[in-house]
Specification:
This protein is mainly beta and about 300 residues long. The protein folds into 2 domains: about 140 residues; about 80 residues. Helix content is about 10%, strand content about 35%. The chain has 2 helices and 28 strands. The chain has an 8-stranded parallel β-sheet with strand order 1-2-4-16-19-22-25-28, with helices on one face. A 6-stranded parallel β-sheet has the order 3-15-18-21-24-27. Strands 5-17-20-23-26 form a 5-stranded parallel β-sheet, with no helix packed on it. It is globular, with a radius of gyration of 24 Å. The termini are far apart.
Length: about 300
């Protein structure tokens, strides 16, 4: 009996040592990476916020940092005078967290933008200063001077182009219609539209934190937790001016949305579907537009938590 107790104590000590070793190794291998879209270079290793003239220094794109990152890493994205015009994707184990340490991307006011300039040479004159151009998608939005232009929403089944006032636009039969004033052509306006599909996509990843980004101007969603995303937290996000929704949670994902500002998106501010579970905590979801309510849920469970 005494020998059995001694054996049990030795086993407990061995398990404890192994756990401490695993945790120590996990902490050791989790690293910090740095992104700067002005001062960085994708030829650098991303392991310092400033370059030294060699290989050590920030990378230029978030996508490059994602390719260099491993489990439990933290990516710091520098806020500069330039927007980050790219889409990023978190997939599988490589972009997941460790026990006690999330895979984290920190933006701290960084703007992730999905827009491009409207081609000047593709506008066609219809009549009365109304011009049209093919729309990139059914969720296309037109922006005037970096803000969504005033849109005339169409009722379902409408057969004719509606009346447009100066600087108004509508989406009709997969074309954008925009009315200029009497003295200007479309190319004289600062016009952009959303051509990149999703700002941040998450799929098949665990224990992720995304913090502090402004995500705007994407065709579908600013952020989309597509499926099998567990233990994800979106905190301090501003998601605005995206064609479908600011934040979408689907599949079997489990996501917490905390202290986010979500508004001026096309059909919903937050949307959920499938078997997802979404926790909403201290957010500001704008519902000014009846055609784009604060929350649209076609499936899943939504829990509102106010503190």
């Amino acid at each position: 009996m005494k020998e059995r107790r001694m054996w049990f104590r030795e086993l407990l000590c061995l398990v404890s040592c192994l756990c401490m070793t695993v945790f120590s190794v996990s902490e050791t291998y989790a690293k910090d990476l740095f992104v700067n879209n002005v001062a960085g270079s994708d030829n650098q290793n991303g392991q310092a916020p400033n370059g030294n003239g060699g290989k050590t220094g920030p990378v230029r794109t978030i996508s490059r940092a994602m390719s260099l990152a491993g489990k439990g890493d933290t990516i710091y994205v520098a806020k500069t005078a330039e927007t980050y015009q790219e889409s990023i994707s978190l997939q599988g184990g490589k972009n997941s967290g460790l026990v006690g340490k999330n895979f984290t991307i920190i933006g701290d006011g960084v703007v992730l933008d999905g827009r491009t300039d409207v081609p000047d040479d593709q506008w066609e004159l219809l009549a009365d200063n109304i011009y049209s151009i093919p729309a990139p998608s059914q969720y296309s939005l037109l922006y005037l001077s970096d803000k969504p232009a005033e849109r005339v929403q169409l009722e379902e089944g409408i057969k004719e182009l509606p009346e447009l006032a100066e600087n108004q636009w509508c989406l009709f039969n997969r074309r954008i219609y925009f009315r200029t004033n009497q003295t200007m052509l479309p190319r004289e306006y600062d016009l952009t539209y959303n051509t990149r599909r999703v700002g941040i996509t998450l799929v098949n990843c665990r224990n992720v934190t995304i913090q502090g980004f402004i995500v705007q101007g994407f065709q579908l969603d600013g952020i989309n937790a597509h499926d099998n995303v567990f233990g994800a937290t979106l905190v301090g996000i501003t998601a605005r001016g995206n064609g479908r929704s600011g934040i979408s949670v689907g599949g079997a994902s489990r996501v917490t949305i905390e202290a986010c500002l979500v508004g001026n998106n096309g059909t919903a501010q937050v949307r959920t579907e499938g078997f997802s579970e979404t926790k909403l905590k201290n957010n500001d979801l704008l519902d000014d537009d009846p055609q784009a309510p604060a929350l649209v849920s076609t499936g899943g469970r939504v829990e509102q938590v106010e503190e």
